[in-house]
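Researcher: Let's try something more involved. This one mixes different molecule types, so please make sure each is placed in the same coordinate frame as the others.
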Amino acid sequence: AQSVTQPDIHITVSEGASLELRCNYSYGATPYLFWYVQSPGQGLQLLLKYFSGDTLVQGIKGFEAEFKRSQSSFNLRKPSVHWSDAAEYFCAVGALDDYKLSFGAGTTVTVRA
Amino acid sequence: GAVVSQHPSWVICKSGTSVKIECRSLDFQATTMFWYRQFPKQSLMLMATSNEGSKATYEQGVEKDKFLINHASLTLSTLTVTSAHPEDSSFYICSASLGTGGNEQFFGPGTRLTVL
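Model: All components are placed in one shared frame. Result:
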């Protein structure tokens, strides 16, 4: 079964600074990878996804993520964060033969002025 | 496109009563719907997977008689929390999948359940 690890529970970043959120997955074949964002009391919004092809994926709100098979990673980045980026971020992995997703524990991002 | 709604967005009920939460895919037909539970500051825990017209598949440790799931159509799934207790208080989120390759799920806004 697939699994996801998000090593950072909480990250604080200054507005305008860059942000990188780590995600490591465990899966024997090529995974389907996702990053979702959740604002307080809200559902999840898809930021970006990787199925195949180009390993650098562009998403909404200026986010991007890079799939590195050798490191089993799918880290999320944003060059310059905005105060509105403060939220909970979840990495998820899916398998080819299973519609379920496995979610990481999440990383809380705080943006300071 | 790919909008999922949930109703109600929040509900407060007395202990022992039952509560029904609806999940609708508004602009697409969802072959599969998922129900998650989320505790404060925690990740999503998959409760069950439901396919239209068939019984839901529950994850280990989830009581199927406690959490009744009905997937009546390709656009509607319901979760009924029966004989609710305070420990059932949580944030319940549904998602829907098109069933095509890629596993992408579209999430509803969630329902906050508080059992007094």
